[in-house]
Structure formats: structure tokens, C-alpha cells
Design brief:
Layout lengths: L2 H7 L4 H12 L6 E5 L5 H8 L4 E6 L2 H9 L6 E3 L13 E6 L11 H6 L3 E12 H4 L2 H14 E12 L4 E10 L6
Parallel strand pairs: 1-2, 1-4, 2-3, 4-5
Antiparallel strand pairs: 5-7, 6-7
Length: 182
């Protein structure tokens, strides 16, 4: 069974939930969106399905990027390790989506902080945290040290993640705080 088939057989819901949340807060269909940890493109397809046209994707796996490229979803695809010390991305996005990516065994909380450098002022970051991540107090403390300092929480909803295995997630919509100049 392929990666996509396994997720679909468990009714993977988070990408659709993230895309709907994005559409609720970002109405310009020409906005530039970055799907971090895009994998094979499941999240990117949902972003396209709600009407966005300028979606880029990034993943650390060349194999996943190859699969995503074959689906013709993304304007640009590039390799990026979300746990690296710096994101060398020469573009600022209106929004970044991280569906099913941030967890204790995948992308570290510091990836949220690094996203600040590639988000436009007042840009949106939509991400999910599944039940396993939420149960890890140390992980969640790190998440909210970053979020509370740099973002305003616009929405937090709880719902299906992988209903086939009875796993849920929170979807957060957060907005980058404007940098105060003194």
C-alpha cells in the first residue's frame, strides 16, 4: 500500500481542515502559499481545491517531492529540512501551511520560529498538532513559547485527523505579529 493509499484508507482529514481554515482567513486566491512538509501533495491539492492558485511545496524527501511533482499541483517544489538551523528561502509568503508535520518525531517546534523569516508581515501560519503531540507537555511548552511571543492565535479547532485509527488533531490559525520598531 502506498503512502497516499494508507492515509486515504484512514480518511486523512487534516489537509482539508487546514485548507478550509486558510480560505476562511485569506480571501485573495492569488496569495502565495507555502505547503511545508508537502509530502506527495495531499495538502497542496486541498489548498488548490479551495481556490488558491500560487502554491509552492517543500519537503526533505526527494522521493516525496518527485511524487508531488507528478501531480502538477505546485508552482515550485524544493527540498527543505524543517529541522535545519536556517531556511534559505528567498521569498516571503502570505501564508504557510503545515498539515500533519509538526510533531515530536517529525518537525520540531523551532520550525514555527523559522517560518517567521519567510512570512510576510501579518502573514498566516496554519498548522496541526495531533493527539500524540498534544500529550507531550515538553513539546507543547516549546510550541507555545514560540507562538505566544511571535503570533496571535486566530483560531484553534479540534477534529478529525485520521478517523480510521481514531486519531484527532487541533488545527491552529496564527498570524505573524508586526515587528515593533523603536
Amino acid at each position: 500500500m502506498s503512502y497516499d493509499d494508507e492515509l486515504k484508507s484512514n480518511n486523512y482529514s487534516t489537509p482539508k481542515r487546514c485548507a478550509k481554515a486558510l480560505k476562511k482567513y485569506l480571501t485573495d486566491s492569488n496569495s502565495h502559499i507555502l505547503d511545508i512538509g508537502c509530502g506527495t501533495g495531499l495538502s497542496g491539492q486541498e489548498i488548490i481545491n479551495v481556490g488558491f492558485k500560487n502554491v509552492d511545496g517543500t519537503d526533505f524527501s526527494d522521493k516525496m517531492l518527485y511524487e508531488a511533482k507528478n501531480k502538477n499541483i505546485y508552482k515550485r517544489l524544493f527540498n527543505l529540512d524543517l529541522n535545519s538551523n536556517f531556511y534559505n528561502v528567498n521569498f516571503n509568503y502570505n501564508a504557510i501551511v503545515a498539515a500533519g508535520i509538526i510533531s515530536p518525531h517529525h518537525a520540531n517546534p523551532s520550525c514555527l520560529e523559522k517560518c517567521l523569516n519567510i512570512l510576510c508581515n501579518s502573514g498566516l501560519l496554519i498548522f496541526s498538532l495531533n493527539d500524540h503531540a498534544v500529550e507531550n507537555k515538553n513539546f507543547m511548552d516549546k510550541i507555545f513559547m514560540i507562538v505566544d511571543k511571535n503570533f496571535e492565535i486566530l483560531e484553534k479547532t479540534y477534529g478529525d485527523h485520521l478517523p480510521g485509527i481514531k486519531l484527532n488533531s487541533f488545527v491552529y490559525v496564527i498570524k505573524k505579529l508586526k515587528i515593533k520598531k523603536y
